[in-house]
Amino acid sequence: LHLQQMDYLTYIDIYHARIKAFHVKDAEFRRNGRNGVYGGYQPWQQRAGRFRSPGDGQIDFKGVFSKLTEYDFAGWAVLE
Predict the structure, then answer these.
(1) In the chain, how many domains are there?
(2) Calpha distance 22→68 (Å, rounded)
(3) Mean pLDDT, the chain, as a whole number?
(4) CA-to-CA distance for 20 and 50, rounded, in angstroms?
(5) 42 exposed, middle or buried (CB, 10 Å; 0-12, 13-18, 19+)?
(6) I want to staple 57 with a disulfide (CB 3.0 to 4.6 A). Which of 7, 12, 28, 39 is the partner?
(7) Model pTM?
(8) Where does the Xylose isomerase-like TIM barrel domain start and stop, copy by copy (predicted)?
């Protein structure tokens, strides 16, 4: 969701009842004059958005897990 520039915390507010599991990933999105959300065909180093190691990106994990706890999430959080 972050790489699509969606507000993932609001997404949880809207769809929390449908979330049964989620894939834990970190990502960063750095737009520039050549790339945007649809820049996925660029070489990896030139993409505006890319996945990062957990803790190295821009995902607010504290916010995500706090939000899921607020809704009594009992599903899986999968990190590979």
Answers:
(1) 1
(2) 11
(3) 89
(4) 25
(5) middle
(6) 28
(7) 0.82
(8) 2-80
